[in-house]
């Protein structure tokens, strides 16, 4: 047993918005869904859950929030963004930082609280899952792992997220599908292409009904 208790009120969050967006053809953060940018949708869901938010990107306009650029050069993928989030969190200082992806506008409004319940010691990672699939970009990460993650990104040729997770204590937290008027929505539905954006518009209408 451990006496470690993580206080949700002091956990910072970072929106991962620094990807290449090659399949979308433009920066996802500024893509508009029902008249609002994806970044605004994500911030509206994350803001009630935590008190400090930063954005992982090269630059972002229209928001008075800290921008946290990748520390690892070369657009090294989502784990480079998670590393930047860890470094940001460590500098506050905070023991853990939560990450979410800018292309998932429907993620759960209880994401952080449920991830927190899975943290029973300072070195544990908690990641979200749904329908039997893990979603590591939605995770609660110990900031003390920043140096290890940086080394892994720089030296692992494949950079498969699951390979990094295998090096550490990880708990997957399953989230249920969300009922809508149309059918069940995976809350981690992500928008990679213009067709995905059209589908997200339909899901948004179903959620509003």
Layout of helices and strands, plus pairs?
Layout: E1 12-16, E2 32-33, E3 36-37, H1 38-46, E4 52-56, E5 67-68, H2 78-90, E6 96-101, H3 111-116, E7 125-130, E8 133-142, H4 146-155, H5 161-165, E9 170-174, E10 178-179, E11 184-185, H6 194-208
Parallel strand pairs: 1-4, 1-6, 4-5, 7-9
Antiparallel strand pairs: 2-3, 6-8, 7-8, 10-11
Helix pairs in contact: 2-4
Architecture per CATH nomenclature, i.e. the level-2 architecture: Alpha-Beta Complex
User: What would you call the shape?
Assistant: globular
CATH topology: Spore Coat Polysaccharide Biosynthesis Protein SpsA, Chain A
| N-to-C series of helices and strands | EEEHEEHEHEEHHEEEH
Write down the Rg: 16 Å
- Please report the distance between the alpha carbons of the first and last residues: 46 Å
Total domains, how many? 1
